[in-house]
């Protein structure tokens, strides 16, 4: 992207952003923070972090930051439609997806055509709309209300988007990566995680983050521990897409579980194990991108309740 086109893109985003309510802007700011913190988490085995491009040769840390800034206004817009929504809550899904298409266009413009945050746009977009919907009704967007609302928004998405593919015997050449992986392996990916209320985040990502913060770890080290906990439990379709389901089950999950059994970021042995994971995953081209997206969701669910009082004053 040229400096001039980048300037025009930012001016357009700024104008768009200024039309959003202050409450929706604050939600968008928290989700932008979650994305930038996720990108900053170091070391992040196989993923782009502040010191390495991991298993990727088409992006680096600054690419992720540019992408996050470009799509930030779209999260505010999703929060805004959540705040203004009436009728059945599942009607929000089409609105989120429509804004998500625009967000993807902003992402590709900012990155020169590289897919940096497509999965995060979907997951964090649902968090944004859910949060807006909750605060408009006078509620507080804690993890319980937010994930329950995401479940309501996405109710039936796996059946509508994926189960029908097998019935019609869809041509794999015309499928997205997520659809193709479902056809081959039955993994429901980001759709399944969202419809279930982000169970990997709820049961692994958030507890790991909070436990290590209470133990006195820095935010970065707590994020790393949370990321490894997610990797140990998630059926990460990004790993399957770039590598194989065998790599997921025989390499990623076992290595993450080993690091956790050694204490993760709470012990020197665990830290050494995580650093070794990073080298191994990078050399093998393994990128747990789905785990990175869920770390961003973890951070969003952790930070949103802290700003909730300002929504309600």
In brief:
73% of the residues lie in helices and 0% in strands.
Summary keywords:
globular; 313 residues; mainly alpha; 0% strand
**Major sheet description:** none
Total number of helices: 15
Question: How much is the radius of gyration in Å?
Answer: 19 Å
Overall domain count = 1
Oligomer: single chain
Computed structural class: mainly alpha
Q: Mean pLDDT score, rounded?
A: 91
Helix amount, in percent? over 70%
Number of strands: 0
User: Uncertain runs with pLDDT below 50, 5 residues or more?
Assistant: 1-10
Query: What is the H/E order?
Result: HHHHHHHHHHHHHHH
Strand content: under 5%
Structural account:
Helix content is 73%, strand content 0%. It is an all-alpha fold. The protein has one domain. Helix 10 packs across helix 15. The chain is globular and about 50 Å long. The chain starts with a helix and ends with a helix.
What is the element layout, followed by pairings?
Layout: H1 3-18, H2 22-40, H3 61-84, H4 92-111, H5 118-136, H6 143-153, H7 157-168, H8 177-185, H9 189-195, H10 199-214, H11 219-231, H12 237-242, H13 245-261, H14 268-284, H15 289-311
Helix pairs in contact: 1-3, 2-3, 2-5, 2-15, 3-4, 3-5, 4-5, 5-6, 5-15, 10-11, 10-15, 11-13, 11-15, 13-14
């Amino acid at each position: 992207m040229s400096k001039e086109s980048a300037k025009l893109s930012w001016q357009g985003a700024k104008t768009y952003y200024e039309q959003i309510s202050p409450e929706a802007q604050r939600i968008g700011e928290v989700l932008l923070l979650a994305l930038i913190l996720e990108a900053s988490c170091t070391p992040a085995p196989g993923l782009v972090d502040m010191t390495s491009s991991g298993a990727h040769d088409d992006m680096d840390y600054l690419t992720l930051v540019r992408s996050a800034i470009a799509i930030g206004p779209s999260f505010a817009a999703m929060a805004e439609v959540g705040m203004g929504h009436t009728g059945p809550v599942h009607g929000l899904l089409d609105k989120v997806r429509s804004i998500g298409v625009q967000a993807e266009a902003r992402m590709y413009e900012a990155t020169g055509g590289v897919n940096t945050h497509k999965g995060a746009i979907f997951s964090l977009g649902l968090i944004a709309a859910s949060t807006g919907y909750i605060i408009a009704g006078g509620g507080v967007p804690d993890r319980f209300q937010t994930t329950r609302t995401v479940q309501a928004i996405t109710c039936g998405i796996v059946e509508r988007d994926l189960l029908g593919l097998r019935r019609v015997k869809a041509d794999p050449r015309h499928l997205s990566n997520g659809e193709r992986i479902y056809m081959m392996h039955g993994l429901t990916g980001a759709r399944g995680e969202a419809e279930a209320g982000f169970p990997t985040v709820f049961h692994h990502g958030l507890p790991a983050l909070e436990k290590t913060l209470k133990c006195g770890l820095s935010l970065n080290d707590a994020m790393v521990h949370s990321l490894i906990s997610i990797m140990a439990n998630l059926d990460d379709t990004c790993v399957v897409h770039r590598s194989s389901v065998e790599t997921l089950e025989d390499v990623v999950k076992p290595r993450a579980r080993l690091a956790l059994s050694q204490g993760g970021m709470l012990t020197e042995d665990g830290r050494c194990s995580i650093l070794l994971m990073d080298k191994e995953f990078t050399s093998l081209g393994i990128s747990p991108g789905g785990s990175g997206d869920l770390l961003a969701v973890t951070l969003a669910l952790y930070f949103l309740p802290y700003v909730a009082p300002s929504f309600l004053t």
